[in-house]
Specification:
Rossmann fold; binds 6-O-phosphono-beta-D-fructofuranose; alpha/beta; four-stranded parallel β-sheet; 2 domains
């Protein structure tokens, strides 16, 4: 065979995102068409470390999965092989590097390439494995939409879910004359908060890129109540922080896992309630944003990305990642793609439009 590829594997790592199954389907079917064998690694790299399975995949493995949320391969965000937590009987946790074991397992299975589908954490792992000689092609995924080099599938479904939740809260907020603070995901970026907040015509949108002042948030709430609109909806990205203050965390980073963000919604709701005297409630949308049926766009992008990854393998463009730029699929070196996070530009037209329609950013 001209490309010398016979057997490829694929895995999904990090938090799941709607659209992953579409990628898996496209990788498997387009690889089978080339006459390659395809193997699905269970739970990130777990299958290669003897902690899960590696299964041969055929057409039947990927039937009827495009519209399904989650990932049929399973995933984990505790699966960094370079920082693997080994639990000892005395309760001690030792962090060990198991990357060589992965390379050995990969070679023993006579695999020619790996499609690593993951967010920035998983792509960092992919880059380190590529540097150790593993022939890897990346497919980016994250609901956070925070990779500079590309648009990611999963984001649009998360925005739909958040928007629907905000729409639903309007009626109960209005009936009870309450302020609702809704915390959405996004890590250090405000994409989900911005898009859903604008789409659902929230009154205040708080994002990490624009530090907020609680006085300004309360001013906006007071304005509404005095104008006779006796309820308010505040959307806060989990990474939003007060000017001069800090981001709220549920748990710090631990062996091989990132810090867990969260708490800003509740903190704000308390402050707003105390300062304004209006009844205030908070709601954390959390993992609802990662679940459910992927919207058409996320399936469409997922399928395109999967097929493109197989094409990159055929061209032996290892160490690269599929990227979408101006609606064209391209390839960028993984190293470059993980260098920069894509933040919301505080002066972008979406923010200006939101401000022009009366939405406050708490600044
Ligand atoms: O990166 C995707 C994401 O859903 C973030 O928006 C969120 O902060 C994080 O993952 C939650 O991770 P976990 O599933 O570990 O709670």
């Amino acid at each position: 065979m001209a490309d010398n590829i016979r057997r490829i594997a694929l895995n999904t790592g990090g938090g799941d995102a709607p659209g992953l199954n579409a990628v898996i389907r496209a990788v498997v079917l387009s690889a089978l068409r080339r006459g390659w064998e395809v193997y699905g690694i269970g739970r990130g790299y777990g299958g290669l470390l003897g902690e899960d399975e590696v299964v041969r995949m055929d057409q039947n493995s990927v039937r009827g999965i495009t519209h399904r949320g989650g990932t049929i391969l399973g995933t984990t965000n505790r699966g960094n092989p370079f920082e693997w937590p080994r639990h000892h009987p005395d309760g001690r946790i030792e962090v060990v590097d198991r990357s060589d074991q992965i390379l050995d397992a990969f070679r023993t299975r006579r695999l020619d390439a790996l499609v690593a589908i993951g967010g920035d954490g998983s792509l960092r792992i992919a880059q380190r494995l590529a540097e150790k000689g593993m022939p890897i092609v990346g497919v980016p995924k994250t609901i956070d939409n925070d990779l500079e080099a590309t648009v990611t599938f999963g984001f649009h479904t998360a925005v739909e879910t958040a928007t629907e939740a905000l729409d639903k809260l309007h009626s109960t907020a209005e009936s009870h004359e309450r302020v609702f603070v809704v915390e959405v995901m996004g890590r250090t970026t405000g994409w989900i908060a911005l898009w859903s907040g604008i789409a659902a015509t929230a009154d205040v949108i708080l994002i990490p890129e624009i530090p907020y002042e609680v006085e300004r948030v309360c001013e906006k709430v007071e304005q509404r109540y005095s104008a006779g609109r006796r309820f308010a909806i505040v959307v806060a990205a989990e990474g939003a922080a007060p000017r001069g203050g800090s981001v709220s965390y549920i748990a710090p980073a631990a062996a091989g896992t990132a810090a867990r963000l969260g708490g800003v919604g509740e903190r704000l709701a308390e402050e707003i309630g105390q300062r304004t005297g209006y009844e205030t409630r908070s709601l954390v949308l959390g993992h609802l944003q990662r679940g459910g049926t992927p919207v058409a766009y996320d399936r469409y992008l997922g399928l395109r990305s999967g097929a493109a990854a197989v094409q990159l393998i055929a061209e032996r463009k290892f160490g690269t990642m599929v990227a979408l730029s101006e609606d064209r699929i391209t390839a960028v070196p993984i190293r470059e793609a993980i260098e920069r996070i894509k933040n919301v530009d505080p002066n972008c037209d979406a923010i200006l439009a939101a401000r022009a329609t009366g939405i406050s950013f708490g600044d």
